[in-house]
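FYI - complex with flavin-adenine dinucleotide, inputs then prediction.
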Amino acid sequence: MAEVVQTTRTSLREGRIGSSVSRKEDDRLLRGEGRFTDDVEPGHCLHMAVGRCPFPHARILSIDVSQAVALEGVEDVLVGSDVVSRSDPISVLRPVADAPDLGFYAMATDVAVFEGHPVVSVVAVSRHVAEDAIGLIDVDYEPLPHVFDVESAMDPRSPVLHPRVLKSNLLVKRLTGAGDPEARLAEADVVVEERFSINRVSPLPMETRAIVAEWQAGARELTVRHSTQVPHLVRKQLAESLRLEDGAVRVIATDVGGGFGLKLGIYPEDVLACLHAMRARRPVKWVEDRIEFFRASTHGRESVHSVRVGARSDGQITGMFDAYAVDSGGYNSPMGSPQLTSHMFTGPYRVNDAGTEHSVILTNKAPVGAYRGYGQPESCFVRELLIDRLACRLGRDRVELRAQNMLHSQDMPWQSTSGATYDSGDYEACLRMAAQAIGYEEHVKRGRGPGTDGRYTGVGLASFVERTGYASSKFLARRGSRFGAHESVTLRANRSGGVDVYNGVSTFGVGTETSFAQIVADVIGIDFDSVRVHLGDTGASPLNTGGFASRTLIASAGALRQAAEELRAKILRIGAFMLDSDPEDAVISRGVVCLRDDPNACLPLAEVYDRAIINQGMPPGEEPGLESGAQFEPEAAAYGYGTAAARVSVDPETGDFDVERFVMVHDCGTPVNPVLIDGQVLGGLAQGYGQAVMEELRYDEETGQLINGTMMDYFMPTAADLPEIELQHTFVKSPVTPFGVRGVGEVGTVPGCATIASAICDALADFGVEINRLPLSPESVWRALNQAKASREVRS
Amino acid sequence: MKSAPFTYVRPASVEEALHVLDEQAGAARILAGGQSLVPMLQMRLMQLDALVDINRLPGLDEVRAAGAETIFGPLVRYATIERLPLVAERLPLLQCVMRFVGDPQIRNRGTIGGSLAQADPTGEVPLSCLALDATIVAASVSGTREILIDDFLVSSYTTALEPGEMITEIRFPLAPHHFAFLERNRKHNDFAVVNVAVVGRRGSDGGWSDLRIALGGVSDRVVLAVESAALLEGTTLEEDAIAQAAQLALDVIDPPTDVRGTAEYRRHLVPVYVRRALSKLRDDHEPFDA
Amino acid sequence: MPERVEVTISVNGRKHRRQVEPRMHLADFLRHELGLTGTHIGCEQGVCGNCTVLVDGQAVKSCLMFAAQADGQRVTTVESLAEEELHPLQQAFKDAHALQCGYCTPGFLMAAAAIAAEGRRPSREELREELSGVICRCTGYENILIAVERYLEDRGEVEAVGG
Ligand SMILES: Cc1cc2nc3c(=O)[nH]c(=O)nc-3n(C[C@H](O)[C@H](O)[C@H](O)COP(=O)(O)OP(=O)(O)OC[C@H]3O[C@@H](n4cnc5c(N)ncnc54)[C@H](O)[C@@H]3O)c2cc1C
């Protein structure tokens, strides 16, 4: 049986593991005294503006910068040829396995492949003047035919985006899976088959990307303040592109205003700002504005799926297959396109014969990168809607059909057809709890309506399993990854009695400073307040990987525990020696070391630390100093899971719908800080909700230009748009992670689209409505209704 | 996203403002609430030589009753309209729609004159001014003129104002007390997919008169469904009549397709929303005007 | 040389006189002229509201107002709230875990301060509307609503901010 964490909150000590201590980050942020990248401005700083291609695909015939150069206040101008001669292409951190390297530079050279592709950059005394200068630059473009979507991209008559490397716009096609899904589907009693489209969205952190680059020519040293989730990877990538030693680059990411996957690795503008700083020998700042953001920061998702599920007439699912194509945009961005769709395709169900065919296709749109969920909302959407339809075809109850096919805790560890090893969990418990909470049975009894107001009511459900963290570097190596899997930490006791934690992740909202301090305080046995966490400076932290893939806590917890245990042992050895006793008889309690049997024999920790640091009166053979370091590489990913449920009402005349309730039941393993966990899940759900009902980046098929690249036209939920969310947790320890934690950073994004779509389809089931594309707008629901009515008429 | 350079002028009087506008011959604009103009400047969708900031001009932010008429200065802000008892009493529709414009910060700045000059085809202010049959008073160095709202609104973001003209007053005649307003948005208080404002007077016999039906988001400007209203004149707004009027509203629309909705969907929504607004008008209020 | 105008703006009770380009918006002025970097810029289109400050006591988006327009006016920013201790409104945010990355937080604090200054106590539904002019991407708003609601409830006689 799975081990369930006991969470009687009374037993929790403030600031230890399991306590909802308030965050270390909060005070400075609340006072407006955080240090975001744009908050720092070195003296004599120049400001960069970037000129971008207005077309989706164009040849650059000539660039005339003479008027810009002549403008007062302009200090430097770069065009593609400068960039090619002075830098190397930007490396892809997470290539799709087997995909060729497209080798993209920080600027378009002869051909720009999406609207927003940088073609020229300027630094000047102010951002205003830099933008004035961009306006004076004359670029002569020859617009080329463009590729709009994955379908047209594969048309042999379509232009090929990267003819030097590829023969078509297919970057790579991969088959994954196990068993013989085709055979199972062929012999199944029932097969349901659908085509689904997932919308292209923006991760949209409130702080856009930003960089301040300072080049100290004499020392050949580049210091970069950067809004990133991965300072050490940024350092590596910048050094590579700029042809510098890694050691010549220091990256500092203090406060980061949200990341969500968008701030992983470097972007062209980062290289440009550094090149300008190196040439102008003055600091250069670039803060992306929102107009550039929509065109040049990576987008998330967008894929087209052809999915099949086969089952026996008794409801047992026997085979599943998803052939899907991801629209990757103009090139393969450093984090590539989402890669967990195939990994999580079968979700919580016991299926032995399943597979995916995953195509990554290039189009003349902004590159797609990582976005919270990284492919998992997609697989949840297509799978769960298809299971609803299977239930409908079989005349089965949706909850019972799911329960029948779900894996049980005694089946685990269980290897899915994609090779994912589910560690532990009680999937059905979450399903039942969610059904109970949303009033599923009452709804089935009461029926869908219409109510007196003419509206129909529907209940939707979606179950999922989510990968959190990822397995070892060996796993990554097979996929060509350019980053590792380990996290590292240095702990340092200081003479005033505190402990400093140094780690290379940055602070981007997930409460890392707080949860790290909780673990260190807990393991050593010291006060939470005496732990200070220093993050995000490559010059002051051991090399690590970074904050993404819901891995920060999972991977760092191991390193923190190891380093804290080492430090604790040494404190006890020195303390016991000072108290004329043995380490086994000494304990650390709050600010002191004392003897277990004689609480009066007590020493302030500051004294112990002082001894060690000045190396006076130490036990024989003890090394000076009081510092420990550890590296930790997780051996396995932990798999989070849960079920979400929603109740909606729909106006069949207009398609207008209202999400009246939204319930999420989720397992978070051992909760390090329950309040922070709720915060992560709620935030993720809001993003999932946005993707489900309003967010979509739309390109004009004709012109290839972004239609809604402003905050005004990209619809993002406000406080008045979201339903109240009811959250419940279960606490099944993961056997494969330190402390039994599961990641919680991304889970909220996973079930939203599927749940709401499922609810709307349920509400309109009497009309035969099926919804296959996102986002769900009143108009799209109205269209689905019309289509359902039309096809009924054809049938009858 | 920084504006191109411009000269900033803060005139001491309306006359001075008009002189600057005249001198600059089209290269200057009035800066009122700035909630439409400033984003456009910052996106460099517009470049101007000069901005004439009227925010400090005395007296432009007042609302007063003059007999049956209610007269607004151009600088009356949405937040003021939202709260002013005089507006609630005389022009309840205008007050009601304010809650649907942007958000509290926008409403603290945005002005009735700016919104009319902006002439957004979905704008709640132009929509209710059309329903309430407002008259715009425009001044220039060569004098003032009165423009009926229906003549004032020309097309998307285009009005009958000449480059040297400034709105100095908005006048509302006595308004029928009954109104209904409905709006459909893609997200909270976003620019409307469609919106409908109706006003009318119910007599002691239950018959309706002075009906006006204004529609937003369905053409290159907010439009009046004149025939629909005429059809209902004198009726008690029974279902059949409403349905017929709603259908007739299709004659006055020519909806656009944009990120908020397709023309086809808007065309579908119009009769539905007109019907619902008229039913609401009939059902929501006291039996007849006091 | 670009044309400049002189402005005198009182910010958090202190007068500042500067020569600015007319095209400099108030958010840039606060951040880059005065070093008050607590006011954050999220879109410069008036949508995200992260740059919300009070001008003469009213919440406005400081990216949609030029510094020149604030000449002679009183501006209140997030930096005015805390003294030694956090302001009770900030404490309410901390207690309710109403912030994650913290970038939008000053906008919410100032929008809430404006409500408090007017002595209003909106219902939960009204509050959703009242705070709809600030966009947060991290929290899902739930905890922000709770924090503001609790603060407005607990406030009692405590003096309003920003007035
Ligand atoms: C986030 C956001 C949401 C919004 N949502 C809505 C919404 O839901 N509905 C809606 O209708 N609007 C909305 N708006 C726009 C808002 O209503 C603007 O305030 C309005 O369109 C313009 O009014 P203003 O006073 O701000 O004018 P300004 O922006 O100052 O000026 C707009 C135009 O009018 C001209 N002008 C201003 N005053 C005069 C005058 N007296 N005489 C002649 N010309 C003049 C200006 O020169 C300029 O061309 C929104 C704006 C934002 C930023």
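The pocket of flavin-adenine dinucleotide is lined by residues B 29-37, 74, 101-102, 106, 109-111, 113-115, 117-118, 120, 123-125, 161, 166-167, 189, 191; C 46-47 (CB under 6 Å). DSSP finds twelve helices and 14 strands in chain B.
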